Amino acid sequence: MQKTLLAAILASGCAIAALASAPAHAQVEQRSFEIAAQPLGDALRKYSDVSGRHILYSADLVQGKRSKAVRGRMSSDAALTRLLAGSGLNVELVDGTLVLRAGNGDAAEDLSSTDETPETAAGDAIVVTGSRIRGAGPVGSPVLTLDREAIEKSGYGTVQQLLQSLPQNFGGGPTETTLGATTRNGAGSDATYGSSINLRGLGASSTLVLIDGARPALGGIGGVFADISLIPMSAVERIEVLTDGASAIYGADAVGGVVNVRLRNRFEGAETILRAGTADGDMTEVQFGQLFGKSWGGAHLTLAYQFSQRGALHAAKRDFAREDLRPFGGPDFRSTFAVPGTITAANGQVFGIPAGQDGRNLDAADLLPGVQNRRDARAESGLLPRQRTHSLYAAGEFDLSDSLTFRANVLLAERRYRKVGIGDFLQSATVPVTNPFYVDPIGTNQPVTVAYSFVNDLGPQLDVGRVRGITANAGLEQAFGAWRVQFGGTYGRQKGKADTINATNRARLRAALADTNPATAFNIFGNGSANNPATIAAIRGSYSTLDDFESWSAALRGDGPLFRLPGGEVRLAIGAEYRRERYSYETTNDISFATPLTEPLAGLPGPRHVKSAYAELLVPIFGADNGVLGIRKLDLSLAGRIEDYNQFGRTTNPKLGVRWEVFDGIALRGSYGTSFRAPAFDELIGPAVSLYTTFVSPDPASPTGTSNVLALFGYAPGIGPEEATTWTAGFDIAPPSLPGVKASLTYYDVDYKNRIGTASEDFLRFLSNRDVFGGVIIDNPSLALVQSYFSAPTFSNPFGLAPTDIVAILDGQIRNLSAVRQRGLDFDVGYAPEFAGGILDLGIAGSHIFSIDRQLTPGAPATDVVGNYGSPAKWRLRGRLGWSSDGGFSANAFVNYIDGYTNQVVVPVEQVSSWTTVDLTLSQRIGGNEGGRGLNLALSIVNLFDRDPPYITNRSNTSALGYDPEKANPLGRMISLQATVRW
Q1: Could you point out which of 145, 292, 772, 873 has its C-alpha 20 to 30 Å from the C-alpha of 951?
Q2: Domains contained in the chain, number
Q3: 549 found inside a domain
Q4: Which of 59-63, 234-238, 617-621 shows the lowest per-residue confidence on average (mean pLDDT)?
Q5: Where are the beta strands (DSSP E) in 400-437?
C-alpha cells in the first residue's frame, strides 16, 4: 500500500519535506517555533527543519495556500495544528509516514497510532486509545488527550493530581485522602495510601489503566486498582482517556473507561526537572527528574529517573480535620478513648479519671461521676502521609531489519509512606482486682473496664509501609507489506507492605494488668507517665499486611487493510491474548495473641488464567472519493471479544461505533457496546472470611425502638462478574471558517448490573429505611436458617441472644448486589485565536450527571443517588483562560467547580455547599533555540485563594472529620516552583 501511495504522489509531482534524520514518529516535545505566515510549502519545510518530522505531500495540494504564523514554544503537534489551521488540509499517518491530504481543516482530526506503538502524529486531538487498528482511532467513542503541553500548563506535579482534576473523575475509592476517612466506594481496599482513578464514579476497579497499552500489576487488597502514584510525571508523554466502555477492545474492567498513560519513548536529548513547593508552610514537596534520549542508526533509547517527596500534612494544621465538630455547628464525635481514661463500673456507671495525676495514689473519692473523658484522635493524627517515591524507566527500540523491529520497556518504582494514625485497634481494657493500682468506684470489688488511650505510653500509632512495582514489556513487530504483525509479552508485579506500629497487644496487656507487682504491672489509671519502660515495651504490638499481585501476559496481534471500498480501505485488527494472574495476601498479627501470628488470607483462589480473542473492523462507507452532500465522511466500526476465565467461565462483548462527518468540521458520532468487570481475588473468597453476629438494631417500627437481629458480614458465595451496557451519542465541531473554535458534547448511558458491593456502611439504617434496604432484610426468618448461622464457626454472640430472639436477618455481605444506571453529559468548548502576539486559550470542560439510579437488590425500587454523599455531584466543571506569547511567556488560570450535594446519612438531612477553587500557572522560557534547549521557569499556585472544603458532618466507622475527601482535598493553597532545563 505504501509503495502504491508513493508512486501516485511522485507521478503527480511531489515535495518531500523534512529531509532530516529523525524518524517519522518523533515524540511530542516542546520546541521553539518561529514560522511567519508564508506560502504553505515553504512553511512546511521550515516546520520540518525544526521538528525533524518527514511530511509527504503533493506540490499541487499546497499550491496557492498560505500558512498561519506559528511562534513560541510548544509541542510539534500543536505547531502543525496551528500551521494548517484553515487550510482545508489534514495529516494522516500511513504506515509510519505523515501524509498531507485534503481534510476537514484541522490537522490530524483522523490521525492516530496503533495501540502498542506510541508513535506521535500531528494535531492536538491525537486519538489512539480505544482502537487496535493502526491510524484509525476509536470510531464513535469520546477520547480526551492530555499532552505534554497540557500537563505543564496544569501546574500539577503528579499523575494522580492531573487525573483527579478531570470533570469525569470521582474522588471516591482508594486514594491517600480517603484511607482512614471512609470505607465507601472501596476506599477500605487500600492499605498503602495509593491512588486510583475512578471514571464516572463507577468504581476504581471499573476503570482500566494501561501504561503504553499494557496492563500494569494491580494493588490493594484483592488486586482491585492500578496505583497511578507509581507513574513518574516527568516521564509521561501524554495521557489518553477513553470515557466509554471498551471491553470489546481491552477485556475486563473497562466499564467506566480506559486511561492510557503514554511514556516518552521517543525523547531526544536531555531534560532535568527540579520542583519544590509548599502548602502555606504546612507541607512541602520536592521533585527531581532526569530524562535522556538518543537515536542512532535504527535504534533509540530512553532513560528516565524521578525522585519525589511530599511531606506529611498534620490534621492539627486544618481546622476542619476534627472529631469535635461543634465549632461548625455539628456534633461532638471525639473518641471516648482518652488519657486519662474513663472507668465503667460493674453496674455500668461511668467515672472520669481526673487529670494531673499518675494513677499511683488514686482512690474512689477522686473520680468524677458521670464524666466521660474524651480525646480528639483526628486532630492528633496525620491527614496526609509523607510519601517518598523513586521511579526508573527505560525504553528501547531496535530495527533488526528493514521490516522487523524489537521494542522493550520497563518501569520500576518504589513508594514509601509514613503517617500518624488515629488508632484503629482501640478496645476497652478490663482491670482485675489484683492490679496494684485498681480503683473500685462503687465498692463492689469487681473488675472494672477502662476506656484508655495508650498514646502517652506507646507514642502515636504510626502507619508505615512501602509499595514496589515493576511493569515490563517486550515485543517484535514484523511488516508484511501494509500489514503489521506483533508478538510480545508483559510482566507486572506489585508488592505492598503495610505496618501499623505502636498499637496495643491485647494479650500481653491482659497479663500486665493482672500482674500483682507494682514495679511491673501496667497502670491504666494515670496520664501515661508512670509505667515501667519494660512493661510498655512488652505491651507494644503491631499489625502488618503483605499483598503481592503478579501477572504475565502474551499477545499475538495483527492489523492492516483488507480491500478498498469507494469510501476508503476496509481495515482489520485481530488478536489473541493469554494472561495469568496470581494474588496473595497475608497478615502478621501482634495485637490479638501473645506471640505474633502470620497467616495467609483464607479462601483466596489460585492463579487466574484468561484466554481471549478479538477482532475489530473499520469500514469507511463514505470518504474523500465518494462523499455526497451532507455526508462528507462516514465510518463504521465493529468489534468483538471473547474471554474465558478459569474461575467463572466465558464472557462475550461486542461494540459498534459510527462517525458521520456532515460537513467540513462538523461530525456526529455514537457508540454501543457491552463491558464487564471480573471479580477481584478477594471477592471470590466466599464464606471462609465472614462474621455472623447478633445485634440490637434501631427499628422505628418496634415498640421499644430496637429489634434483635442477626447481622451478616464478609463475602457471600458464588460471586460472578459485573456486566454493563453502554452507549454514547455526541458531536464534534471545528469549523475551518472559525480557526481556533472547537466544541464537543457527549451524552452517555451506562446500565450496570450485578454490581459487587455491600450496604454495610449503612447497616444502622437498614430497618429505618426499608424502602431502600428492604432487599437485604429477611424478616421473621425460619428457625432453621437462624440456627445454621448460629452454628457457623464465624458466629459471634456479643448480646447473648437465643435463636428464637432473632426477628430479622440484616445482610451486609459483599455479593452481586445492585444495579446502577447512570446518564449524563460531557462537554468541552474552547476558543484559541491569535491575540496580542500570542495565542489565547479560553474554554470550559465539564460533566453533568442527570441521574444515577441505584437498585440495591433485584425487585427493590431504584433510587437516584446523584448529588448524595458517597456519590458523584451533579455538576463538575473546569474552566480555563490562558495566553502564550511568542517570547516564551505563558499564563494559565483554571477554575474548578464541584456542585453542592446532600448528606443523606445524618438526621436531619444536611445540604453541603459547592466548592470553587482557582489554579494559576505562570511560566517563562529563558534562552533556548529551535531545538528546544534552554531553561523554563514555572510558578504554579493550586487553590490560589486558599478555599477550605465545604463543611460536612462526616463520620466514619472509627472517627469523624468536617470535610468530604471524596469531593474535596485538604491541601489548601499549594505554591510550587519548577525549573526545566533542556540540554
Answers
A1: 772
A2: 2
A3: no
A4: 59-63
A5: 404-420, 429-431
The Cα 976–Cα 96 span in angstroms is 39
CB of 153 within 8 A of CB of 247? no
* Tens-place pLDDT, residues 463-481: 999 999 999 999 999 999 9
| pLDDT number for residue 944 | 97
- CA-closest candidate to residue 820, choices 875, 767, 749: 749
* Residue 312 located in a structural domain: no
Q: Which of 766, 779, 855 is nearest to 817 (CA)?
A: 855
Q: Which residues contact 725 (CB under 8 A, 6 or more apart)?
A: 245, 672, 673, 674, 750, 751
CATH number of the CATH domain containing 117: 3.55.50.30
Q: Are 973 and 940 in contact (CB under 8 A)?
A: no
Q: How far apart are CA 247 and CA 165, in angstroms?
A: 25
- What b/e string do you get for 273-288 counting C-beta neighbours within 10 Å, with b at 16 or more? bebebbbeebbbbbbe
pLDDT given at position 30: 62
Q: Are 883 and 890 in contact (CB under 8 A)?
A: yes
pLDDT of residue 61 exceeding 80: no
- Rounded distance between C-alpha atoms, residue 232 and residue 306, angstroms: 6
Query: C-alpha cell of 269?
Result: 536529548
Examine the fold and report which residue of 103, 126, 149 is the final residue of a domain before the chain moves on.
126
Residue 107 domain flag: yes
The rounded radius of gyration (Å) of the Cα atoms in the chain is 31
- Which of 99, 126, 153 is a domain's end point? 126
Three-state SS at 538: helix
Report the sign of the C-alpha dihedral through residues 558, 564, 569, 572, in that order.
negative
What contacts 365, CB < 8 A, 6 or more positions away?
A: none
Q: In angstroms, rounded to a whole number, what is the distance separating the alpha carbons of residues 99 and 40? A: 15
Residue 8 pLDDT grade (very low, low, confident, very high; cuts 50, 70, 90): very low
Domain hosting residue 59, numbered range: 1-126
